[in-house]
Write a structure and sequence with these properties.
Rossmann fold, Tyrosyl-Transfer RNA Synthetase, 2 domains, 3-stranded parallel beta sheet, two-stranded parallel sheet, 15 helices, globular, binds tryptophan
Length: 361
Amino acid sequence: MDEIYNGSFEAALERSKKIEEDLKVNPSKYRVLTGDRPTGRLHIGHYFGSLQNRVRLAEMGVPTMILIADYQVLTDHDAYQEISQNTKQLCIDYLAAGINPEKQDVIIYPHSYVPECNQLMIPFLTLVSNAELSRNPTVKEEIESAGLKNVNAGMYTYPVHQACDILFCKGNVVPVGKDQLPHLEMTRTIAGRFNKKFCADAGKEPVFPEPQALLSKTPMILGLDGSQKMSKSRGNAIMLSATEDETAKMIKKAKTDADRNITYDPVNRPEVANLIMLISLCTGEAPEAIASRIGEGGGGMLKAQLTEALNEKLRPLRAERARLEADPEYICKVLTEGAQKAREIGIKTLNEVREVMNMVI
Ligand code: TRP
């Protein structure tokens, strides 16, 4: 049972590059499945790291499922009071960023509304061992960093649930960061074992694809305090929903360093390089060109230019966000219609699953 977690990052990167090329030629061969936990609004790290990429894929015509992992929140958060609000806010962020279920082949839904997805959990749990579940490096790290003493079984089994998320709709491409690769390995293993046990060994066609990761090309966006990943809980993030003034204030407080001359040096000057990278992501200019243009202008000029570039870049998104926030009925419609479409897909898969498991009555 040792094939899980042995996949190398380089191999995943190679496969990811090949898929990226093929997506342009054969978008309809794929179904992208991606999603987030509804723990709050999204920030610019999400925007540049994943949202923009989702919009790009949807606009290319790749069928896309965006799931809001509301059940998954329960694995490591005591606060469930906010889940519904956060789900709607996530949906608003997606739509404001350019996801459009009316014009693109995109379905947005909370997974708790798709019983057919959740039902796969039962057979899937029989395909992995306890030992495999407790060896998952990402789960281990989450338990450690949250300082959890009593770990609930949902925490150990959520990667299996994530396999249900991906496989119920036969997703075959999953845009993810490095931390999600162990979960994707788990999904591939479950798909492989299911196909072998219930399909190949009985001379039947496989039911599930073995999905591949699509790795992000955007470097990790650091928080404004420098060294760590941008995250709302660390207070170092600029939210998409922030006002222009709030954005300016956050950037003013951002950490830089003592060297007045601005250069682009991610290894030795990570904080400065991060701010330059953010300008580059807004304007499309090369980071080196931005740095040499600012040069002796120093940190003050760097921050002023970032404030302007970011506020300009986000202005249309923020206007659209405000418009959507004033239209809660539309948000509800997007989510319920999304759930309905997801169920239609799930019912088909579940029927196939029953068939090969010899459970049809
Ligand atoms: N674990 C992901 C996160 O924390 C969210 C998620 C749930 C997900 N199910 C998924 C991501 C399936 C990709 C595929 O962000």
